[in-house]
Amino acid sequence: MATLYIVGTPIGNLDDLSIRAVSVLSNVDIILAEDTRVTRKLLDRYNIKKEVMIYHQHSDLKKIAQVVSLLEQGKNLALVSDAGTPGINDPGNFLIHEILKELPEVKVVPIPGANAAIASLSISGFPTDTFTFLGFPPHKKGRQTFFKNLDTIPHTVVFYESKYRIIKALEELKNIKNPRDLMVSRELTKQFETTYRGTAEEITMRLGKEPLGEFVVVLGPIKKHKIEISDEE
Ligand code: SAM
Fold first, then answer.
1. In CATH, what number is assigned to the domain containing residue 163?
2. Angle, to 10 degrees, between the axis of helix 93-102 and the axis of helix 61-72?
3. Which of 35, 79, 80, 214 is deepest in the core (most CB within 10 A)?
4. Residue 217 C-alpha to ligand 1 middle, in angstroms?
5. For ligand 1, is residue 217 a contact (CB within 6 Å)?
6. Containing structural domain, residue 94
7. Which atom of ligand 1 approaches the CA of 85 most closely?
8. Residue 74 Cα, ligand 1 centroid: separation in angstroms?
């Protein structure tokens, strides 16, 4: 029976592809990629010449049926996203779920690689025996509740934010009730990688009005024992 490899790829620095990932990408029959141009760049860097097929968040059931059919024919496949680990705020979970419904005997094998949340947590200095990963805050509906709910999570929290909303997120963090340390990672593994530690006010000042790049926000545990939960909306 065929194997579907879930391959972690770099989050910026193309050197961050594991030797095992190179071997798997070189040996599978077809690579499923979120954006073929992005993946081609990575493959070229490692001189991997391989058929690349698109699989992204808008791929429909017809595309999934095509993937199932390839696995049925015994083709080994690798799924990659544009950056980091597939399935972590990237396409992959639904595909795996649907494949296993049709072909429960298919082997799904992780090839671990970079992940922005874990990379950021690893330098935070905050406890990580327990942490909550929240993906992206909602853009509009539910955004206020997202930030309000942070006061109900006593341990370390990590989430993603885009350059368009990072300043807004920091504004919202100024209003949380319970004091906690804050760290923001910008452009991890890239040329302009920067780590910001301090209060939301301090980090906002350092980022300026129109910050560029990709961001991970990490909040340390709530500092006091009593957790205050606001009941105002
Ligand atoms: N699957 C990816 C992973 O494993 O980290 C996450 C994909 S998600 C669509 C993209 C978000 O991850 C970005 O908006 C940013 O919040 C975060 N991210 C990805 N690469 C990053 C980097 N090099 N530096 C900081 N944050 C990054």
1. 3.30.950.10
2. 50
3. 80
4. 11
5. no
6. 3-111
7. 4
8. 33
